[in-house]
Amino acid sequence: MTFYRPDLHSELLRLCMLQSSEYKSPKLLLGSEVATVDINNATVVLTNGSSISGDLVIGADGERSLVKAAFKELDTLRPAPYRIFRAIVPTETLVDNKRQWPVLSLTTSKFAIFRKGTRILSWFEGRDGFLQDLEAGYNISLDEDQGPETDPVKVKQKMLHTFSDYHPSILAALRKAERVSDWPVYYSTPLAHLHKGRAVLIGDAAHSMLPTTGQGGTQSLEDICALAIFLHSDSLKGKRERQVEERLAMFEELRKERMAIVQAGSGIMFGDEERLEKTKWGQVLKRAGIRDGEGHLRFLYQYDIFEESRKALEEGMRAKARL
């Protein structure tokens, strides 16, 4: 299953703003830039001078997170030695050309990957098949790199040149792209902590990773599901502040182990696990029992975050009761 990012954002916004008598409705503040974060008092100060306080600050503010910076720990974010051309192609511009039908049959309702050497082109549908999302990754030399191309005409020319030896049907689709971006990629190694004081990190703020396995958004959703279990209001009784910190410790323990493995495998193509098992990242997968592409897929997609979070919460509560 794939999602067109704006559609996913719209649906998450709709769910977030639902009105219910069972919980407080959130207040959305648009155009409110954060200046500083006080993680010990769960307070955010905006650039307009106003401040907002709560029980908890959830840092979902990306790989250059201000919440993460407030932890004052080593930031492991670094540039990856490749970039991605990102392009959107309306499906209607392809279906009229019969020569495109064979490649469209490979990508309809599927996530297709076309690999040639170190270059990888990922192709998947968006907006119920009305759009085709093409993401074309290529290696760069960090020592010689001049930065991503920003001119819209030049970036498309650069993409077509970089992938000029791909199949004519794929090149024809790339030529139909209305707008192309040359996207820099960053990743981090596992952080020392996912929570500190009255703050917790999720998404790219917690685990920015390489895009090869397509796990950035997926793991963000797992973070959200886990927090929904650990911080459900029905299970928080008594001294809330103390309990929230205890629950965040449980969240961290559950997520850190899995995220270390997911991040290690995020730059490895499915099927390359055995060939790369002697590398640093391959060793992490091997210790987790992941030896091939099928095992890697099972690890990623047969994991029940709700069930694992419930079990971790129950075990944590039992351990606390024994004290």
TrEMBL record:
Gene Ontology molecular function: any one: FAD binding
Domain FAD-binding: residue ranges: 50-242
Pfam families per UniProt: FAD_binding_3
Key words of the record: FAD, Flavoprotein, Monooxygenase, Oxidoreductase
Similarity field: Belongs to the paxM FAD-dependent monooxygenase family.
UniProt-listed PANTHER family: FAD-BINDING DOMAIN-CONTAINING PROTEIN, MONOOXYGENASE
Protein name: FAD/NAD(P)-binding domain-containing protein
Classification lineage: Eukaryota, Fungi, Dikarya, Ascomycota, Pezizomycotina
